[in-house]
Write a structure and sequence with these properties.
The protein is of the alpha/beta class. It has three domains: 6-87, Winged helix-like DNA-binding domain superfamily/Winged helix DNA-binding domain (Arc Repressor Mutant, subunit A), CATH 1.10.10; 92-160 and 262-289, Periplasmic binding protein-like II (D-Maltodextrin-Binding Protein, domain 2, 3-Layer(aba) Sandwich), CATH 3.40.190; 165-252, D-Maltodextrin-Binding Protein, domain 2 (3-Layer(aba) Sandwich), CATH 3.40.190.10. The chain is 45% helix and 20% strand. The protein has 13 helices and twelve strands. The strands form three sheets. A five-stranded mixed sheet has the order 4-3-5-12-6. The protein has a five-stranded mixed sheet with strand order 9-8-10-7-11. Strands 1-2 form a two-stranded antiparallel ribbon. α1 packs across α2, α1 crosses α3 (32-46) and α1 (6-18) packs across α4. The chain is globular and about 75 Å long.
Length: 294
Amino acid sequence: MDELDWRWLRSFVFVAQADSMHAAAQRSGISQPTLSRHIKLLEANLGISLFERRGRGLTLSPQGQGLFERAVAVRDSVKTFEREALGLSEQQEGSVSVTMSGVFGIHFAPEWLSQLRIDEPHITIDLVIEDSAVNLLLREAEIAVRQFRPHQLELVTRLFGTTPLGLYASPQYVDQHGEPADMAELADFDLIGFDRETYWIEAAAAMGFAHTRDDFAIRCDASVVQVSMALAGLGIAAVPSWCATGLPLRRVLPEIVIPGPPLYLVAHPDLRRSPRVSRVWNHLAARLAALPLG
């Protein structure tokens, strides 16, 4: 057996967790040919088959199942080593990976990054746009802007407040259709809402109004797309107030405030000790603190 390449184990874990080469490539950022080559090299080196093909997907073979947890443990150990090493580094220059949701990526990040490039020209940013949480413990990102409280106790968090939402439409939509006089009339208008998510429905129910999925003329679980649809004049959407402030949207039923999720800044304490990560954290925290939050 030749010496194992750590990258082969990393690709093995990615593919095993994703159940297909395509999904693993999307999640990892590693091309499918590279993932496939790493798996073949690892199998050839070990002399066993790690996967069984099921249609278009892959499942772990019995041998692969036996080795998977050990491969995950190796992956976690390597990531811990990298994270702790970065925390010990005194280097001021280099890249920092920051993750945030689509709404923050479109409507917050450009202005923040413009100022960061002026204030910290020697630091580059890898911006990871994900509405689902990435794993900071595994260094999928180094700093996260999140709208929920992290569950991992190892992480450093800072709470900035909540992100309340209001009901907004484009001026063109309001000029053409008018606006509701109260919540009871809201159902007579074109509503933009979620497909599988039930946040708006639950928030309306808490205020005494019954809405169902079928009340939405347009449904999409990506909040950033909902904002774009409202801007395009397709209807009324629940938009975070901090986001709508800088957009050509008109608020309808301004007395209605929908409680929003909390806003956290999150990092691992090992990474916060890195000078460049700390500088990005402080810069990002100052911009988030300036948002009109609840």
